[in-house]
Amino acid sequence: MSTYYAGLFADIGILFLGAMSVYIILATGQLSLGNAGFMGIGAYLASYLTVEWHWPLTAALIVAALAAALIGVIVGFPALRLKGIYLAIATLGFGEMVRSFLLNFDRMGGSGGFHGMKHVSLETIWLWAGGIFVLIVLLERSRLWLEMRAVHDDEIAANLVGLNTTATKVGAFGFGAAVAAVSGGLFAHHYVYIEPANFGFERSIDFVLAVILGGSTVGPGALIGAGLLVLLPEWLRVLADWRLAAFGVLLVLVLLTRRQGILDKPLLNRLTFRGMRA
Amino acid sequence: MTVLALNGVGKRFGGIQALTDVSLAVPEGRIVGVIGPNGAGKTTLFNVITGAYRASTGDVLLAGSDITQWPSHRIMRSGIARTFQNIRLFASMTVWEHLLVAQPRTGGLWRSVLPIGWTDAEARKRAEDALVFFGLERYRNVIARTLPYGIQRKVEMARALTAQPKLLLLDEPVAGMNAEEADDLRALFHRLNERGLSILLIEHDMPFVMSLCHHLYVLNFGVLIGEGTPEVVRNDPVVLDAYLGTEAA
Q: What is the ipTM for the molecules in this complex?
């Protein structure tokens, strides 16, 4: 595979992980616009562990994921009081807070960024992305996911059929944050240089956009969305300066024709023949 | 044994006293009804029992345990299940999924993160039983919200029962139903009761309540104004005056 395509597929894998982190939180009906913050935490912590403490990448990613999960749970608790757009704005604030912190955190390079990581292979990125995707696909068939959907559909009813909606929502934040951190750790070791600007608001929007575009009700939607978000601007290069405008138009058109995103349950069932068996 | 007991329960919303010193009991294996005009505080009573509202005064006891300050999900897990005045089904779920989601978790968190098909044979069996009991087999894979109203009511009740409650709270279960559907439900409640389930219901349909309940409480402006068997309540002059009206007598 050419370096060009390897780079694109690495970007897709990293964005896919970020999109999955949003998808998990969205499954409980909460929209997070701050997942780039968790990604940044994962990127900086994993990089610190591999560069300064010479940890193997796998161990560094796991620790970074656990640390981000803990922070996700801590962020998740005050977020319980907020819903809809208010929650989205609060998470956005969290993401910007992390970016500002990193900007002033001289121990990790501050605005100058941090480097010294060893380049990670494309296979490793996709091993993580594929592994987490399989986990989510299995989780989607579990009791826990049913409970998450119940909270998404009607939180009051969920509570009154005996579900602990607080634990479900906070847990989803923790899990989503962990996945975003893995995305960040892999990003850092793919580009071997990170700076706070890598984990700004636009990155969070990319994650959300990938989920909304690909389909927010099924796991594979995140993959379709991530693939399109990375590849479409490349395919449109023939349009030179107009390519991003054309990309925007295409996005709007897709969402106008398929509000639920490209992939939804009926389409996924048809593709996987599950609909025929049911 | 008493499944549910309320002792002097009061609920105040700002300047409005919605419930005042309400004491009632649901003995094991009985069907108890709460009747009263609109705004009498019946749904508030249910919300206090289920922890959706906190009682301002008094205690709520479930099988002897004081549940007054418990969070809703803990109360529901401890043996109370409810249906809602306005049906509350989960928009994205099939009938089958509704019958799985409210079941008590067994085997801890690990079991709940694995696919249901791999681990939870017991839960699937329970859901299958509920499907058959309520005659919902043919709707198994249908999104529950797309079904006719009467069927949705059954799905909601089936969901409540899969939680394996000691006590079922029914908030106007036959509202909006025709006589045939109401008869169908009455027969269903009798069958559930014969299995040992205790039921507490709120209902406006007087013939339905009178023919179903063993014992009735009458609520008016948040105060209990009468109680007894349907026969006693039917002839209680205070109740007649406040609610049933002289025509009913």
A: 0.87
